[in-house]
Design brief:
The active site is at residue 132. This protein is an alpha+beta fold. It has helices spanning 16-23, 28-37, 78-84, 113-121, 148-156, 230-237, 281-292; strands at 2-6, 14-15, 40-42, 45-46, 52-53, 58-62, 85-88, 92-97, 126-127, 136-142, 160-169, 176-180, 183-186, 189-195, 204-212, 216-223, 258-266, 273-277. Among the domains are: 2-62, Structural Genomics Hypothetical 15.5 Kd Protein In mrcA-pckA Intergenic Region, Chain A (Roll); 162-260 and 288-292, Pseudouridine synthase. Strands 7, 8, 9, 10, 11, 12, 15, 16, 17 and 18 form a 10-stranded mixed sheet that branches. The chain has a 4-stranded antiparallel sheet with strand order 1-6-3-4.
Length: 293
């Protein structure tokens, strides 16, 4: 793998080592290979780690199979994968996952969204975050192992912003609210999660009412944390279970009415703001039917 990256114009001057460690989060092992193999260049010239870089410099890095061992992934449907891609560049790809499709398979032979996206990109892609099987919407993948730890770090530091829409039962009275309730595993069913008074993981969901209907409310949810089933558990705990959510006793619907509508991040190398909007025909169809009934 060979990448040439033009540094953002407003980047402050720093050493190559600082760039690799603090800005790009390159793991220690890979930094060692870059140093010993002299596989790092500034504006076309071989550089060492003490050299200074600044805005608009072009940094080239080369990684071989020893640096990042190749990982194989079974390819899915190339045409389907291409139809689902919302954004793609040299380092990352964002796809619109349909409802009732896994983000990634549980074994090498299982085909999921990751495999379809890989077929469309004609290369292995790496999962940065996942959506539940029943949930639709925007999912981020890394296109190489170089950028993967950077995106993982951005996700942990809440620098990747995910906005969901959910149609839940009843009329949510508050226009805005913050649900700050820890979540733990249901001791009666390990597949379910519940709000707990102690011993759970911190979980915070920001909720904004978008539209009140006769017996439902369309809400927007933003995650401050990313716990399993977080939005589903939090809304259900307030007696506003999401329609179609059989696990959390939501009213019957032909699909889970939870959709990852927007995904936004600052590109780790170019600093460009990337914001995508994912649509779902099944979600909109059910919404339209409920509004007109």
């Amino acid at each position: 793998m060979k990448f040439t990256i033009k540094l953002p114009t407003d980047l402050k001057e720093m050493s190559v080592e600082a760039l690799l460690i603090n800005e790009w989060l390159v793991p220690k092992k890979q930094r060692h290979f870059l140093r010993t193999k002299r596989h790092l260049f500034i504006n076309g010239d071989i550089a060492n780690f003490s050299h200074q870089v600044e805005g608009d410099d072009q940094i080239t890095v080369i990684f071989d199979s020893e640096d990042f061992p190749a990982k194989s992934l079974s390819f899915g449907d190339q045409i389907l994968g291409r139809s689902l891609i919302l954004y793609e560049d040299e380092h990352l790809v964002i796809a619109n996952k349909p409802d009732n499709m896994k983000t990634h398979g549980n074994d090498a032979n299982e085909i999921a969204l990751q495999n379809h996206v890989a077929a469309a990109c004609n290369q292995t892609v790496y999962v940065v975050h996942r959506l539940d099987f029943e949930t639709s919407g925007a999912v981020l993948f890394a296109k190489n192992p170089f950028v993967l730890p950077i995106l993982d770090h951005m996700l942990r530091e809440r620098q990747i912003h995910r906005t969901y829409q959910a149609l839940c039962a009843g009329q949510v009275k508050q226009d805005k609210m913050i649900i700050d309730q820890p979540i733990g595993t249901d001791r009666h069913d390990k597949k379910r999660r519940v709000v707990v008074s102690r011993g759970g993981q911190r979980a915070v969901t920001h909720v904004l009412v978008l539209k009140r209907l006769a017996t439902e409310t369309l809400v927007q949810c933003q995650l401050e944390t990313g716990r399993t089933h977080q939005i589903r558990v939090h809304l259900s705990s307030l007696d506003h279970a999401i329609l179609g959510d059989a696990v959390y006793r939501g009213r019957k619907a032909s699909r889970l009415m939870l959709h990852a509508k927007h995904l936004e991040l600052r590109h780790p190398f170019t600093q460009e703001i990337i914001r995508v909007t994912a649509t779902s025909e099944s979600f909109e169809r059910i919404m339209k039917k409920i509004v007109t009934d």
